[in-house]
Amino acid sequence: MLNKNFLWGGATAANQMEGAWNVDGKGISVADVMTKGSVSQPRQITDGVRAGEEYPNHFAIDFYHNYKEIIKLMAQMHFKCFRMSIAWTRIFPKGDEKEPNEAGLKFYDNLFDELLKYGIQPVVTLNHFEMPFYLSTKYGGWRNREMITFFMNFAKVCFKRYAGKVKYWMTFNEINNLIDTDNPFNAWTGAGVLYQDGENIEQTMYQICHYQFVASALAVKAAKQIDPELQIGCMLHFGPIYPHSCQPEDLMASVKAMDRRFFFSDVQVRGTYPAAVNKIWQRDKIQLDLTDEDLLIIKGGAVDFIGFSYYKSTTAQADQDGDFLELPNPYVPKSDWGWAIDPVGLRYILNLVSQRYNKPLFIVENGFGAFDKLEDNKINDDYRIKYLENHVVEMMKSIELDGVKVLGYTPWSAIDLISASTGEIEKRYGFIYVDITKVRQGKSGFIPKSSFNWYQNVIRTNGACL
Ligand code: BG6
88-111 pLDDT, tens per residue? Predict the structure, then answer.
């Protein structure tokens, strides 16, 4: 049996659902200048909000104006918690102001009150794929040490204002995406940075990471000073990378590939840089702005829990240069977006991370993006139920058979919203269907899917129905 306090819920992010991108003093965020894409066409990052472009996050699903109706539906599913993020640009529209925007603060007050009215605990990410666009253009985003100060102003205002309403916080969403510098999406959404031609990209990437580690550690310290009961987590993308074969070289390639994921949690959980990364810096002559004081801050700011997302696994095959090639796993099926469906991978990663760190884990994202069909005002999403059920069963095995400590499970996503990678609403993940045409017309367009009833039952029985 799962602990009776197990936090069942659903996950979202402000920029992907709120809309109201320029309402009540909100500033432009880095997500507001990303155009719509698709599975075959990447999103573009424009140098401001340009006429004639389509920016799906501007309206998103208009959660900003519909949150009461949506929360009521989540309460019907018996949610114990709701993972969401605070849009930095609602609180500090440009990012470097001295005083926060009261209207933005008030919005989250109202939202938290509405959740708490139903006994739903907010679980809040401070920085989920967005930051003030102004900080990116004026200061160069997280290339700049000053970002630590701006982030801390934001974090402290939030902790102080909401300490009585929010206990679980996370600092940076999927911080370890930064390691993948090939895709401009990662540094843009994670750090407000676009790498320049001729730049030492690896060095800039490690510098960004370092400043964010310092900021995250300072946030942990600040939160505890405000209220020692607050629980602050890191948040990583933990798709396992298996060896492509049982050749020893492939196994080693998989270990090294996973080191790139774990580098981030090693720092945020253990409070020290792992030995391997120092070797990389020496080898590649990486020069960082990194002081002894920073290292002390990082040491003193270890997180309380490890939040992570799990969607898919992949494999690593050793190549001639001592590097690796990422290859799909031939043993597992794929979604329409090519994402591997591997429930056992969730149990595997829960075991691996728990053995590595011996800290409470929180599965703050897991889910199935699919095209849903609205027929007779109903959505039969059995494929999503199957995906989620298989993953929940593996999670329960990790808790009940393997002794892993899991705080909760918040699948992505509580409700359909804008896909981060492609900017579509058509890549749907939610328990609640969003009829965007109706919502745009100001009508009610939120329809529970079959997975809604399934999840309601799972939460009601605390997983015992599976
Ligand atoms: C995670 C992000 O990477 O995956 C979410 O934290 C994102 O913001 C989710 O939406 C699913 O990815 P996508 O690209 O299908 O929306």
Answer: 999 999 999 999 999 999 999 999
Whole-number Å distance between alpha carbons of 150 and 194: 19
**Is there a catalytic annotation at residue 249?**
no
Under 8 Å between Cβ of 83 and 141: no
CA 72 to chain centre: 24
Atom of ligand 1 nearest to the CA of 427: 15
CA distance linking residue 98 with residue 100, whole number of Å: 7
How close is the Cα of 300 to the center of ligand 1, in Å? 31
Cα–Cα distance for residue pair 261/270, rounded to 1 Å: 15
Distance, in Å, from the CA atom of 381 to the CA atom of 378, rounded to the nearest integer, reads 9
Topology of domain 7-460, CATH: TIM Barrel (3.20.20)
DSSP strand pairing (324-327 vs 314-318): antiparallel
- Distance (Å, rounded) from C-alpha 90 to C-alpha 88? 5
Decide: 202 and 284 in contact? Cβ < 8 Å. yes
Give this complex's ipTM. 0.99
CB 49 within 8 A of CB 55: yes
Extents of the domains making up the chain: 7-460
Ligand 1 touching residue 189 (CB < 6 A): no
Global confidence as pTM: 0.97
**Cα–Cα distances in angstroms (integers) from residue 444 to residues 62, 182, 440, in the given order:** 11, 41, 9
